[in-house]
Design a protein that fits this description.
The structure is a single chain. This protein is an alpha+beta fold and 161 residues long. The chain contains five helices and four strands, in the order H-H-H-E-E-E-E-H-H. Strands 1, 2, 3 and 4 form a four-stranded antiparallel beta sheet that branches. The chain is flat.
Length: 161
């Protein structure tokens, strides 16, 4: 008898307790960990962006495999990246905007699909870091454009004189 989707999902979501020695052995034989370790040693990346958000997390009463998170007050900063410097950062979205993520093992329950439809809530592609990057790029381009237009104005004035 083949496992159901629910059984497969439950297997993936299990958590494991292990000793420090077991963790060391796991890391030695874990391909993603080995690749990340190589990346860190070879490229020596440095922190560039701090991202934070306020999250509410929910789990279904009737179906614990249904999970929903709501993020708000998504903020970022590029200076003072140490965590001990607090929660201050520039907002990525308007104050009244929320990001909701729904995880379900298969299809959404009918009641949830109906509710999302009634409230005109539709799926979107959204990345917190990607949104930060796009906003930073727009600011950089606007500053460059302003700088270029200022230099053009100076050249025009020099030509008149």
């Amino acid at each position: 008898m083949s496992p159901t989707a629910n059984q497969i999902f439950q297997r993936v979501e299990k958590k494991y307790l292990m000793s420090r020695e077991q963790w060391k052995l796991f890391k030695q034989h874990s391909s993603p960990y080995i690749e990340m370790d190589y990346f860190m040693k070879f490229y020596r990346p440095k922190p560039k962006v701090w991202l934070a958000y306020d999250r509410e997390a929910y789990v279904g009463k009737a179906d614990e495999e249904l999970r929903l998170t709501v993020d708000r007050n998504i903020r970022t900063r590029t200076r003072g990246l140490k965590l001990e410097l607090g929660e201050v950062g520039e907002r990525l979205m308007d104050e009244d905007m929320y990001l909701m993520e729904i995880k379900a093992p298969a299809a959404y329950p009918l009641w949830l699909a109906r509710l999302l439809g009634e409230l005109l809530i539709y799926p979107v592609s959204f990345s917190k870091y990607g949104s930060y990057y796009m906003a930073a790029e727009q600011k950089r381009k606007a500053a460059a454009l302003k700088e270029n237009s200022g230099q053009s104005q100076i050249k025009a004035e020099e030509e008149i004189v």
